[in-house]
Amino acid sequence: MNRASHETCRSPNPSVAREKEELVTLLSLPGMTSGRLRELLTLFGSPRGALEAIEKGAAEGPDPPAAAWREALLSPGLRDTASRLKSQGIGVVVAGESGYPALLARIYDPPVALFYKGELPGDSPCAAIVGSRKATPYGLEAARWFAEGLAREGVCVVSGAAYGIDSAAHSGALEAGGITCGVLGCGVDVIYPRTNAGLFQRITERGCLLSEYVPGTQPRPHFFPERNRIIAGLALGVVVVEAAERSGALITAEFALSENREVFAVPGQVFSTNSAGTHALVRAGAALVTDPGEVLEELGLGEQARLTSVEPAGNGGATVDERALLSALEGGPCDVEGLALRAGLATHHAMASLSALEVRGLVQRAAGGFYQRCGPRR
């Protein structure tokens, strides 16, 4: 980059900043959508032209009527929305502006603007991890482990900040000291679900929350399928962990395929309806992955040692009883009594050994007192 262009990036053209403010003003009008905004821009040539047309009554809007738009434009402060949001720690980047995610800009229907809290991923490669809200302990552990493995290699983990697999993916990336991006189906200042308030705060400290919806926008059912195209659009590839036959995760996978992005499926339990959609993806040609390193390799992001093949003895040395319990857990999650029976141990011996394995991060106690094996922590 030459000096002149570098200075241009550091000192934005005032006309560009004004046009950005005008775009945000238009998006803030009641009932405005990206599609409707594009129609206005096509008809009137520019954000300023669209605003003037609304003021003069030349722009029609059936729902709400153009009169509601004109009335909204009279609201004090509406035209300074972008500046006001900045003072609240909310950034805005518009299509065509430096900082707008390059991969996202290439999709069929990129958002006109992105509102965000935190720091956008920039040049960091992104991979999405998505799946069921009603995840099993196995699915949560798999999502966390894949996210940790990707994050350690400098990959930004993208997901939807919802219950289940999404939350596990974000948490895994954060636990690995990596960065993560949560794409919301509401405004970035709206905490949904409410129980994820702590996670949202951690995400903004090590990544960002972002949305195409103006801050203050409450979640609506149709916003979530819409935001899935952004999750797919930001990522080089999408990893699906536990998806039922009708799942939002499959919508994300379809968006990814339509944009020629990679789609990966983590195999699940054959008796679980949560894995029916994931296995259908495999039958349809998605790459089956059992290790974060396989995802990295397929995306051309470097090779990583196979984490799943680490022997228990390589994790501080396992006793005979611990090895027996780890072997018993290969059959799937189980409670203490069942594991003791499988491993041929007295219950009190099994409890002591499980506690030691839990401390070393080799097993995890899930809801209902069931234990399961974990991906090795590093």
- In whole angstroms, how far apart are the ends? 39 Å
Structural class by SSE content: alpha/beta
What is the CA-atom radius of gyration, in angstroms?
24 Å
Helix content: 40-55%
Number of E-type strands: 11
Number of helical stretches of at least 4 residues: 17
Mean pLDDT: 86
The biggest sheet, with number of strands, parallel, antiparallel or mixed sense and barrel status, is:
9 strands, mixed
CATH architect. name of the largest domain: 3-Layer(aba) Sandwich
Largest sheet strand order? 1-2-6-5-4-3-7-8-9
**At the first level of CATH, what is the class of the largest domain?**
Alpha Beta
Portion in beta strands:
5-15%
Estimate the global geometry from the Cα principal axes.
elongated
Order of helices and strands: HHHHHHEHEEHEHEHEHEHEHEHHHHEE
Q: Return residue spans where pLDDT drops below 50 for at least 5 consecutive residues.
A: 1-11, 304-316
How many domains, in number, for the residues? 3
CATH level-3 fold name of the largest domain: Rossmann fold
Write the topology of this structure:
Elements: H1 3-10, H2 14-27, H3 34-44, H4 47-56, H5 66-73, H6 81-87, E1 91-94, H7 102-105, E2 113-118, E3 126-131, H8 137-152, E4 156-159, H9 165-175, E5 180-183, H10 197-205, E6 207-211, H11 223-234, E7 237-241, H12 248-258, E8 262-266, H13 276-283, E9 287-288, H14 292-298, H15 320-328, H16 336-343, H17 347-359, E10 363-365, E11 371-373
Parallel strand pairs: 3-4, 3-7, 4-5, 5-6, 7-8, 8-9
Antiparallel strand pairs: 1-2, 2-6, 10-11
Helix pairs in contact: 2-4, 3-4, 8-9, 8-14, 11-12, 15-16, 16-17
